[in-house]
Amino acid sequence: MLLTLKAKLYPAVEQKKKLVDTMEQFNNACNSISKIAFELKCYNKFKLQQKCYYDIRKEFNLPAQLAIRAISKVVESYKIDKTCLHLFDKFGAIVYDQRVLSFKGLDKASITTLEGRIVVPMVYGSYAKLKMSRIKGQVDLIYIKGDLYLCIVVDVPEEIPLTPEGVLGVDMGVVNIATTSDGVIYSSDKCNEVREHFSKLKSTLQSVGTKSAKRHLKKISGKERRFKTNTNHIIAKQIVQVAKDMNRAIAVEELTHIRSRTTVKKAQREQFGKWAFSQLKLFLEYKSKLIGVPFVSVNPRNTSRECSVCGYIDKNNRTSQAEFKCLDCGHTEHADYNAAKNIAARALVNMPIAVCPKGNLNRKPTPLVVGY
Ligand SMILES: [Zn+2]
Fold it and tell me: CA Rg, the chain, in Å?
């Protein structure tokens, strides 16, 4: 499985200057190449190289391989859209390959700059036991708010999937981030608090409009997103571990649409919710693969309207955002918990598992709310 590993660089002051200067010059070169490509309508890498390689190297003082990388970056960008001139950010990413960037052991990278190669210490979080031989292809050097990072694509071995003795269904939503068929609810309260805090702060700062307010605005942008990402990591990790400990597969809904039972009105929130959903699903999936938990997606149709006890489907079964009451058998419970059990049951139907779906899932503990 290919994963992207983000490593933070810790360059010395003069090293940082070299790297940042290189980025700036690299992107200046990209802009110049882009103008040539667009004027000549020439988007073929080799033809473009013939036309501008020597001039670019001379004008921007780029090492040979970086000039080639700049041409590649421009060509890649025009592959998506050729209708307008592309301009690149001053500190846009440099895409390195193994000829211009290599690793020295697990904690240093040797990086080509305008002034030759430099060896820079780096630190990364997870997969610290990774072998560098697992690095595949290109490495991006990126600059975020004064810090430099490398985005490294690594091939991580997947664990052989266990043979499941059951399924843990996971329902995802806006009010509750995730609810499992064990009855554990990860509520969005904390996330909503954080979102409200930031949106208030943003609107205050926008109305102030001074230089320092703008600086502050820039600083907080992305903080909410990072908080949500971190929360999704924590939740996904816990759910996957619970499945693993009890030899179960994980089932989620296919994310073809955002759940209509969200009560949130603002379009912006829905957008945020959509992004958060697919991120949580992605995290659940790769974390499952890493530790050998089978991962399945099921058809989401009516999972929130179906009674998990008798199977009766009716949109009026759902009396409120939180409550489910079956109009046929009278069964009542938390709506997301009911949906999570349906998701698990659907996955069980398609799996060669020697358990009775409904019987296995029909325990009825009080939902346990985990605060997020
Ligand atoms: Zn029922």
Answer: 26
